[in-house]
Amino acid sequence: MGQNTHLMILLLEGLHKKKLDSEPLPFVNILEILGLDDTLFCCRAEPRYEREWRLFAVWSAQRVLQDKEYLELLDVAEWNACGQISRKALRQAYQTALRLRDEKDQGESLLIFPADIAVRALLDYGAEAAFWTSRAVIEYPTIQATLAISRSEPLNGFVYEAERLIQERQFRRVVTGVYPP
Q: What are phi and psi of 51, to 5 degrees?
């Protein structure tokens, strides 16, 4: 059974339905049933929300990036979301992020570094940027906690879960326009 089939079965079960229909399905419902990763994956089906997906990626990246160079790259990603720059400028920023990754973040390639997050926020398609940036941002503080506090597994789980919940809350705001209680 493929990933898409598996997701469809989970959605149908979560909606208490036996078969597909043409009724629109709010992203909040998908989030509640499938979780953040799979919901962001489903965002690819709605390119008309490109701006929202890109702004979610920028918001996610801003949560962990502090270096001026990375924040400038996120400005470019935000301007792109708002239609204020050219594709050429976006590609230049993407190339700059790749260069920074090569220059600054050398070493253990299995880890997520700040430049990786900037690279992901600058991806060509908003839904891809949202999905990959979100995943990197959720993993980044977990990795930092692992490196800082003698590989404490309970802390890692807490940090990972806390960041995921914060992102879910923001995603709800993006798709509904209101903050959940």
A: -60, -50
Using DSSP, state whether 115 is helix, strand or coil. Answer: helix
More confident residue, 31 or 111: 31
pLDDT at 152 over 60: no
Structural domains counted in the chain: 1
Token pair of 83 as six digits: 């239609």
- Residue 85 has what pLDDT? 94
Give domain status of residue 157, yes or no. Answer: yes
Q: For residue 96, tell me if it sits in a domain.
A: yes
Residue 140 lies in a domain: yes
Q: CA-to-CA distance for 57 and 171, rounded, in angstroms?
A: 10
3-state secondary structure of 10: helix
Q: Is 28 left (phi over 0), alpha (psi -120 to 50) or beta?
A: alpha
CB atoms within 10 A of CB 64: 18
Dmax over CA atoms of the chain, in Å, equals 53
String of DSSP letters for 44-71: GG-GGGHHHHHHHHHHHHHTT--SHHHH
Buried b (16+ CB within 10 A) or exposed e, 147-172: eeeeeeeeebeebbeebbeebbebbb
Tokens of 140: 């980044």
